[in-house]
Specification:
Layout lengths: L2 E12 L4 E13 L2 E7 L10 E8 L2 E8 L2 E6 L4 E7 L4 E16 L4 E12 L2 E14 L5
Antiparallel strand pairs: 1-2, 1-10, 2-3, 3-4, 4-5, 5-6, 6-7, 7-8, 8-9, 9-10
Length: 144
C-alpha cells in the first residue's frame, strides 16, 4: 500500500533573466520503485481553472504530468532529448526537453528531497528557452 504524507514544496524556476519562486502544499507518495510529488499549482490557468501537477521521481529520470485546465507532459533524463506536449484552452503544441543535468538528493528518513535540473526547451523543433529548476520538498513529520 502506498505511503502518503503531506509536504511543503518550493519550486524555483529560472530562464537566465527571470527567476520565479512558488511555495505550495502538496503530498509525497512512496509507491513501488518511484516517488510521486503531487500539488495544485497556485496560479489559475488562462480561463481561471486549476491544474494539478504530479512529479514522478525514478532513479535517473523525472517526469512531470499536469492535469486540469493545463495538460502537459515533460520527461527529463540527462543527456537525452525527449518528447512531450502542452495543451491549454488557448493553445496546443508539441515540445521536447534536452536535459543538460539532473541532481536528485534524498534524505528519505528525514523526509526531504532536493531536485535540480537544467534543460533546453524546444517547441516545434525550435529552441524556446534554457531553464534551471529547483524543487525542494519537506515531508511533514507525523506525530501519533
Amino acid at each position: 500500500m502506498p505511503d502518503s504524507r503531506a509536504a511543503a514544496i518550493t519550486l524555483q524556476s529560472s530562464d537566465g533573466t527571470e527567476t520565479s519562486v512558488q511555495h505550495m502544499r502538496g503530498e509525497v507518495i512512496h509507491a513501488g520503485t518511484g516517488t510521486y510529488i503531487r500539488y495544485e499549482e497556485p496560479e489559475q490557468g488562462p480561463t481561471g481553472g486549476t491544474t494539478r501537477t504530479t512529479v514522478i521521481i525514478n532513479k535517473n529520470e523525472l517526469k512531470i504530468l499536469r492535469h486540469g485546465e493545463i495538460q502537459s507532459q515533460q520527461t527529463f533524463r540527462p543527456g537525452e532529448r525527449l518528447p512531450g506536449f502542452y495543451r491549454s484552452p488557448l493553445t496546443t503544441f508539441q515540445l521536447s526537453t534536452d536535459t543538460k543535468s539532473l541532481e536528485i538528493d534524498t534524505n528519505v528518513n528525514g523526509g526531504s528531497w532536493s531536485l535540480k535540473w537544467a534543460y533546453d526547451l524546444y517547441v516545434y523543433e525550435e529552441l524556446s528557452g534554457q531553464f534551471t529548476i529547483s524543487l525542494q520538498i519537506q515531508e511533514e513529520i507525523r506525530t501519533c
